[in-house]
Design a protein that fits this description.
The chain is about 30% helix and about 25% strand. It contains eleven helices and 16 strands.
């Protein structure tokens, strides 16, 4: 679709936006052509740091001046929908958003559906689902190398079930190659159940996946904090916030035997799992596959989180997905929703300029 360098605009120049800038200014096939930020001092400091002269206070001002090939939207969650819809309506070919995608299901729907209707790519951002090793383990599972997945579990699904918990749900869906079809949940502590945000909420429960696989959910950390799937050939694949571990068979003591796995190297790995998010989006824009994290993935993670809280509120009632009420809302932590500028975690101009 695009032969020359892809022109990138970064919308939101805070700490995470600067990580995107480090990556996009390193790659030989991308060029950062514009920045957007509401804070003029930070906008100037970051622009000078990365050598970007086109700087705008709003997405509208940017899009009135130019239409980039990629818009990396790295604003607080409250402002994602506005920026994404503006970019989509302006014809930006590839748009990426950070996590979570929204607080309200209807807002997530609006972004995903608008991009789909226009034939544009909506990608997700800094999720471990986009880690090269996670993707490789998933490909091996999908190829049937380890047998058929017959069970799954999620560990430490608590604290921020929509903010950080989208990591768990995104890896679970990838490994199981299935959607979460039904949620049955218990929440604790009790005072967190009726709040409108996910801070401090811990979920125990059971997910039923669309392929019939049951998934046990543990709110607190067991010895692990991530996602496990196991197969009918006694293989267990475990993601625990890093490259997946793979176990096959049992040792002499009856414990699972860990395999030594050599994952294929991945270029530009110094940018962590953000690398896979960005590089798979770039590849998709060139007609080579799909992003490793999509807007749909982020919407599904939000819906599971909302369903978990709602099931627990109703007294552990099983809820089928998709949820009929798209007005249901679960806010992330104030830092994710409003950003550091509004929650006392302001980045200094010197730090934004890369001088501290």
């Amino acid at each position: 679709m695009v032969k020359d360098k892809l022109r990138v605009a970064v919308i939101g120049c805070g700490r995470m936006g600067q990580e995107y800038l480090k990556a996009y200014t390193t790659y030989p096939d991308t060029e950062v052509v514009a920045l957007v930020d509401t804070q003029p001092e930070r906008l100037q400091a970051v622009g000078e740091r990365f050598g970007v002269k086109a700087r705008f206070a709003t997405p509208d001002a940017l899009l009135h001046s130019l239409t980039p090939d990629i818009a990396a939207v790295v604003t607080p969650v409250k402002y994602l929908k506005y920026a994404v819809l503006a970019c989509a309506q302006a014809g930006v070919k590839g748009i990426s958003v950070e996590k979570p995608i929204a607080a309200t299901l209807a807002d997530a729907d609006a972004m995903v559906d608008e991009c789909s209707r226009r034939g544009l790519i909506l990608a997700g951002g800094n999720l471990q689902r986009a880690m090269n090793e996670v993707q490789e383990a998933a490909r091996r599972l999908q190829a049937g190398e380890f047998g058929q997945v017959v069970g799954a579990s999620v560990h430490a699904f608590g604290g921020e079930i929509s903010g950080g918990g989208c990591q768990h749900i995104s890896v679970l869906r990838l490994f199981a190659q299935a959607e979460v079809e039904e949620v049955l949940a218990w929440g604790s502590p009790s005072e967190t159940l009726m709040q409108d945000h996910d801070t401090g909420l811990s979920i125990n429960g059971v997910f039923r996946l669309s392929n019939g696989v049951p998934c046990q959910v543990f709110g607190a950390a067991t010895p692990f904090r991530g996602v496990e799937v196991w197969t009918d050939q006694q293989v267990l694949v475990r993601w625990d916030w890093g490259p997946p571990e793979i176990f096959a068979g049992l040792d002499g003591s009856g414990a699972r035997k860990r395999l030594e796995v050599e994952y294929a190297p991945y270029p530009w790995s110094e940018f962590g799992y953000l690398t896979g998010s960005i590089r798979s989006l770039v590849a998709a824009l060139r007609g080579e596959g799909a992003p490793w994290v999509t807007g749909h993935d982020l919407r599904q993670a939000l819906e599971v989180a909302i369903a978990c809280q709602r099931s627990a509120q109703l007294g552990n009632v099983p809820l089928r997905l998709p949820l009929a009420d798209r007005s249901l809302t679960l806010y992330p932590s104030p830092y994710r929703w409003l950003g550091g500028d509004a929650t006392g975690l302001v980045q200094s101009t010197a730090e934004a300029a890369g001088k501290s």
